Every structure is written in structure tokens, then in C-alpha cells.
Amino acid sequence: MPDNKFTQVMMDDSTIDAKKEIDMVFSIANTLRGPYKPERYKDVIIPMIILRRLECALAKTKKAVTDTYKKDPKAPAQILCRKSGYQFYNTCDFDLKNLLTEAPAIVENLTFYIDSFSPNVQSIFEELKFKEEIKNLDKNNRLLGVVKKFSELDLNPDTVDNHKMGYMFEEIIRRFSENAEAGDHYTPREVIRLLTSILLAEGCSDVFSEGREVTVLDMACGSGGMLSSANDFIVRMNPDANVRLFGQENNPESHAICLADMLIKGQPADNIRLADTMKNDCFDDTSMRFVIANPPFGQAWGGKDAGDGVEKAVKDEFKIKTRPSRFMAGLPATGDMQLLFMQHAVYKMQKGVGRAAIISNGSPLFSGNTTSGESQIRRYLLENDLIEAIVGLPSQLFYNTDIAIYAFILSKGKRKERKGKIQFINATDMWTPLKRSLGKKRREISKDQLKLITEVYSEFAPCKKTQWCEKRKHDCLIESRIFDREEFLYKEWSVYQPLQRRGIINEASIDALRTSAYFTANTNVFNEAKFEELEQTDPRSSADEKAYQKQIKGKRFTEDVIDVLEKHKSDTVYMDFSKFLTALNKLIGDIEGMSASRLNGIAMELSEIDKTAVIQKDKKGKVLLDPTTKDTEIIRLNQDVKEYMEAEVIPHIPDAVYMYEYDENKAESATNKEKLGAEFPFTRYFYEYHEPESADVLLNKFMSLETALSDKIATLQRGAN
Fold first, then answer.
1. Cα maximum dimension of the chain
2. pLDDT (tens digit, 9 = 90+) per residue, 324-361?
């Protein structure tokens, strides 16, 4: 249970009203209509907000810096930073207001003003290509008006703190990103507060010791909201802490916003990198006490939809042998990089104490089959006891997606009670409606709800609790369940039926063989599509010619088989599959290209399952299995296999034969692979069946509605007359 001080600090965040500033910014944006399309407003608005914010921050120490610079233009950057009070400075006398006094020279003067910033700030405007926009604004007679309006916008850190700026950027980015690339979901502040609260709720006693260095990473940092919140909460709890923030972001606008905010916080510019985390770990020599992130949902890391060089970088990293790989557990399907970010978080967490909170959609919980990369990554997280909790959060929290989200809480230093355990927290009912929708965001998590979620996490006990929401007139439910980690590890068992088939060589069975995948899409027999492709290739390479000749032989083989079978059609039914094989062998065994495996494959296509047929056995009397009947059953490690089969399989298939198809004494291969996987079927554990209303009750309701509607129509008709 979190102590009172923790709870008070974490929830002490009064409602922030940035409407005045936001409205003013968008009134400026509206002046860009005509020369700029709405989706390009950000090219002007974002750099101008950053410029004004930095200018306001430097206002108090501006004269001290310029005086020092005038006395010694070669003054070291450290001295100028000391004079400015920040990790950046500006050495000229200009600001946005006095730029207006020399209107004819505003392009040159504004450019000079930007060039007078310290290099770490200049790089921000270079990333945003703002000097080009200055020329565009001037060309379209918008520059003077934009500069004038921004000079009147108060963004002083003393009056507009980082939280308020965060809300401003949040709203600005939301409006500019309504058609954002899939996966770019900007994190609402209350979600950030919740993640930070949970991260700091336990396992952090060392963080609050005097002079403690605390490293925090967001490897998909966006505009820096998560880093800012983590920093603020840690500093409020321990003013003596030396908090070092690290971020990577591959979107130039978001990176620029984040970098400006971090500079104002006194963080080194070199710790906020414009870089793709999938390609590089920019802080390879630094392990992190905390990792907090909201990686993109459903964004490809491989294939045609992936960014340039991403697939190669990911695969190269996975293959590394000279050091531990960032993607130590495997590679997920190329269409979604969320589990790559999750592994990167694990890689960066400090040994023995590192903690992480990662936002995801539902895909990382259960996507992929048993041997897939996704399943093996989940298995790695479980077997290494890295998952403390998974928290299900409400839908409709984000601005441009209304899907449900989850928070993975990871730890390399679980407290004793949590070892070998995983906590599921269903907080999907913990929401309050907004007064008005913000894009697709119609809900928020209130401070009281945030506090309750954090307390339920810290208590680490099975529970059901409710909290009254006045706006909804509803008791909001939160539920916690505790599981052994083996609950989510499973083996995939194969289930077969005995080989019992009825064979016949007639028109129907021959047609079935002729159109079967075995005869039309089989790499080892004949592939019709490949044959047509090669036939139309001109000229063919030597490799293509070799493949073409192989397909010609396969086509001839299938035609020869069909020709012979057509000539020997009959109504004879073979109830013994071995005798059917013998009969077939006499007919087609001498055809060029025939083999035992091909003969067996043809026999399977010409036959069908018949439970009255003779059960086939090998020479030792062992029952042979029908490969076409193969099915699989997912059985948890903490389940008894025999009991499961007798309860779930045998009642439906009395002659079922089940086995675990893996030989640990043999080398792993495509046909001999450990079928041990993991999944988190979160919603299944909280599902409660509610019996539907009876047909009679529903009929009565319908009749009542019909009667009421008829009465209203009659009343309207009387009034019309």
C-alpha cells in the first residue's frame, strides 16, 4: 500500500486550463489559410511556439548574456549558460517584439535571431527547416502578422509551467494529427500520471535517498510528456535527486518540442536524440532505473510498410553474438513492432532494480501461434519473471483511436511477494466522461480513480472494489487477480485419430485428386501457378529454366496418373486402406516419377475418413494415425494433461490419440521444435456470463414500445386534424 506522502504527491495535480493560450495559437493558425493547407499549419506553429517558449524562459537573464557576449564574443558556452540559467542561450538583442520595429528587414533579423541561439537550440530549428518557412511566410505576407501575434503570447515558465505546456502541445498535436500515421497515438496526461504513479509506487526506496542519480528513458518519447511527468514526480518526492532524462524520437516535430522542454528543465540536449529506436540504441552505455513509453501500435518493422533500413537493422541486431542483443527473445511478425520496444525496455532496465511501464494495445497479449516470435517473447518475459502486472485501461482515452489499451509493468527487482506471480488489474470501468469530446477521446481517468488503481496495484491482492462516479451516476468497478506465472505458459499437444479410410477410384474421387492442392500447388509434385509464371518468363535464367523443367515433369506426372485412373474407374470400395494402396500401386506404381510418398499422398486424396473402415496398424501392431485428422490443444503447464483430455477431447473423439510432438534428445529443426508458448487472455479472466432476457420478456417490452409509439402517432394525428 502506498504511503500517504506518495499518494498525496502523485495525485496533487490541479486541473490545468490552457484554453486561452490554445485558442490564441489557433487564431494565429487561422491566419495561414490560403497560402497553407491545414495539415501544414504545424510547419509554422510548432517552431514559433518553441521559439516563443525559449524566448520567454531567457527573458530574465537576456541582458546579462548579451552584455557578457558583447564584452567577449569568444566567451565559452559554459559561461553563457551560467549567465542564462539554462543549458542554452541567445547572444543577440532581438526578441519577437522588437523585431517588429524593423519590419522591412524582418526576414534577415529573424534569421539572425535564430542563428544567435546556442548550437543545441539551432539544431531544433534546423530539424524543423524553419528558415525555409520564414521565407515562405514572408513571400505570402504572413510573417509580420505571425511574429506580432506570437510576441503577445505569454509562455513564460513562471506562469505557464511544463504541465500546462504539455497540455497545449497535446491539443495542438491532436488537431494536427487527426490523420496521423497509424500507430501514432499521443498519450493523454492522466495516462502518463498513472504509469508514473505505478512505477514509483514500490521498489523505489533507493530513488529517494539524498543526491541519488535517477535515469529515466522513453525510447518513443514524442513531445516528452512521459519524461516530464516522471521528472516532476521524482523531484517533488526527492528534491535532492539528480534526475537524468533520456529520449529517442524519429518524428522531427515531436523531437523538437521534447528537446525544447528538456533544455528548459536543464537536461543535456545530447540526451534527447532524433533517432529510430529500431535502428539504434543511442545510450548503449547507460542502463535505466526507469523506462516509460507508449510505442506505436501496429507499425511495421519489416516488409514494404517498414521505414528505410529498419528491417535490416532489426535482423542484424537479433543476430548479434558479440554482446547481448536488444531483441534477445525473438522477432515478432513484421507488421507490429510493439514487442520489439518491450524487449528494448528490458535490455535497458538496470540489473536488479530497473522498472518499466509500457503502453500497448491488445496484440502483444495474445497474437501469434505457439512457436511464433510473439509467443516466444512472452515466454521469455514469464520465464525470467519480468512481468509484475498487466493493467487493462478504458477505451476512448486517446485522441485518435478509441481502442482498449493495456499497461505492462515490468521489473528486474520484484518484491518477495510478487516473485513468480503476475497481477491482472481490470480497470476498464475506471473512467469519467469528458464535457466535450476531443477527437476520439471521450473519457478520462479522474484523480480519485487514478489513486484507486495505484492502490490496488500496491496492495497486490485479489479484490473487487467500486468507486462512485457522480458524472456517470455509476459505481465504477476495479478488480485485481493474482496468478502463478505458469498460468500463462502452455504446451501445444497434437491430437490424431486412427487411420481409417475408405478408398474408391470413381469420377468424383478422380476429380477431387485432379483439383486438389496435392496436384496443383505442391512444391514437390506440381505447382500450377509457378508453372504458368515460368512458362511466360522470357528469357529464363539457368535457375528458372531448371525450375521450369522440373514443373514440366511434374505436370506430365499428374496427367499420366489421371489418365491411368480414368481408364480404371470402378465402383469397387476398399474398406482397408492398405489394400487400397496395393491396388493403386498395381495401377500407377510404374509411372515415371512415382515414389512411396507420392503413392501414399494420392491414396489419401482418393479416400475419405470412414469410422467403419479397418484401423491401420504397422508391423508391430501399433495403430497408425491419420495426418489429415490432426488437431491441437493448448494445455497450460499447471494443468494435468490426462484430466484435460478426458474432459475436453475424449467425450467428442473417443478414439483420439494425443501426444507432445517434440523430442528433446534430437536437435531442433522445422519438424522437431519445442511447442512451448505463452499468452495473456486478459479479458477471459474477467468475463462474467449474464443470462439474456427470455423471449417472453423481450416480446412484452417490444409490445409496450409499439403501443406507446402508436399512442403518440394517434395523438399527433388528432392534433393535425
1. 110
2. 999 999 999 999 999 999 999 999 999 999 999 999 99
Please state, as a whole number, how many other Cβ atoms lie within 10 Å of the Cβ of residue 156: 15
Q: 36 by DSSP, 3-state: which?
A: strand
What's the DSSP call for residue 473?
T
- CA 223 – CA 247 distance, rounded (Å): 10
pLDDT of residue 23: 85
Q: How far apart are CA 591 and CA 322, in angstroms?
A: 54
Contact 146, 48 (CB under 8 A): yes
Question: Which positions of the chain have pLDDT values less than 70?
Answer: 1-17, 162-163, 166-167, 170, 173-174, 176-185, 720-721
Query: Which contiguous run of DSSP H or E holds residue 627?
Result: strand 625-636
Residue with grid cell 497515438, as numbered in its chain: 185
Q: Are 378 and 408 in contact (CB under 8 A)?
A: no
pLDDT for res 519: 96
Given a contact cutoff of 8 angstroms between Cβ atoms, the answer to whether 201 and 457 are in contact is yes
- The torsion defined by the Cα of 605, 608, 614 and 620, in degrees rounded to 10, comes to 40
Q: How far apart are CA 59 and CA 115, in angstroms?
A: 17
Q: Taking the CB of residue 418, how many other CB atoms lie within 10 A of it?
A: 19
CA distances from 389 to 194, 681, 684 (A): 13, 14, 16
Under 8 Å between Cβ of 53 and 41:
no
Question: Letter for the amino acid at 108?
Answer: E
Q: Which helix (H) or strand (E) segment is 364 a member of?
A: helix 363-366
Q: Check: CB of residue 10 under 8 Å from CB of residue 193.
A: yes
Please report, for residues 77, 227, 526, 552, 601, the alpha-carbon distance to residue 518 in angstroms, rounded to integers and kept in the order given: 74, 57, 8, 16, 8
- CA proximity to 386, closest of 333, 345, 325: 345
The CA distance from 348 to 182, in Å, is 26
Best CA proximity match to 187, nearest among 399, 447, 444: 399
Task: Give the per-residue pLDDT at 11.
Answer: 47
Asked if residue 52 lies in contact with residue 96, where contact means CB atoms within 8 angstroms, the answer is yes
Please tell me the predicted confidence (pLDDT) of residue 400: 73
* pLDDT for res 302: 95
CB 31 within 8 A of CB 142: yes
Task: Tell me the chain's radius of gyration from C-alpha atoms.
Answer: 34
Contact between 658 and 495 under an 8 Å Cβ cutoff? The reply is yes
Q: With contact defined as beta carbons under 8 Å apart, do 588 and 602 qualify? A: yes
Burial 212-248 (b: 16+ CB within 10 A, else e): bebbbbbbbbbbbbbbbbbbbbbeebbeebebbbbbb
Residue corresponding to grid cell 494565429: 28
- Indicate the DSSP class of residue 465: E
In this structure, the chain runs to a length of 721
Q: Is 642 exposed, middle or buried (0-12, 13-18, 19+ CB in 10 A)?
A: exposed
Question: Measuring CA to CA, which residue among 508, 417, 496, 407 is closest to residue 461?
Answer: 417
Q: Are 176 and 273 in contact (CB under 8 A)?
A: no
Q: Are 317 and 381 in contact (CB under 8 A)?
A: no
Cell (9 digits) for 713: 402517432
Distance separating alpha carbons of residues 306 and 336, to the nearest angstrom: 10
Cβ count near 125 (within 10 Å): 20
List the beta bridge partners of residue 631.
495
The pTM score is 0.85
